[in-house]
Structure formats: C-alpha cells, structure tokens
Amino acid sequence: QVYLEESGGGLVQPGGSLRLSCLATGKTENVYQMAWHRQAPGKQREFVARIAKDGRSGYADSITGRFTISRDNVENTLYLEMNSLKPEDTAVYYCNAESGPSYMEYWGQGTQVTVSS
Prior knowledge:
This protein is mainly β. It has strands spanning 2-7, 10-12, 18-26, 31-39, 46-52, 57-59, 67-72, 77-82, 91-99, 104-107, 111-115.
C-alpha cells in the first residue's frame, strides 16, 4: 500500500506561481512512476505531468513550458512547480503513483488550486 498526501495549493493571481508537493509513504520502493492530474469543476480529471524513477518526464500540451515536475527519490516527495498560472489552471490537483510488479495505482486526496484576481 502506498499513501499519497498533497500540499501547497491555494489562491494565486493570474501570472503567479505555486509549488505543489506530494509525500509518498508506505511501500514506496516499488513505485516506478508518479504523476499529477487535475480536475476542474464540471470537467473530467486530466493528465498534467508524469515522471519516472529515472527522471524521464512528460507533460500535457496545455502546461508545457509553464509547469515543471520533479521528484526526490530519497525523501519520496513529488513536486509540481507551476508558473505563469492562468484562470483555466484552476482545479483540484491530484498526486498519482504507479507501482509494480503487480500493477497498482494510488491517488491522493487532492489539493485545490485557484487562479483568480
């Protein structure tokens, strides 16, 4: 079992920045990929960014160049640095982890990000 706890959300003005964190605890040794997803009001949850244990990363087109995903494998913490935030980035942001060898997927409870003036 892997437990994920997000933090760092809040209210920010357009053009501002936020840094989200996700602490992973439990059987983290088998986690091979972590990711951020988000869900805006009235919309489906969507992929934001992913990062493998070796550091390879991928991003959604909508946030490429503005957001940066990183992970600290020693501290078992995932980060999302968000810059040049837009009102359309407003959503609940969820941390996700995938582990093996028997595939398992875990989700955090989410952290609210609101971009508004």
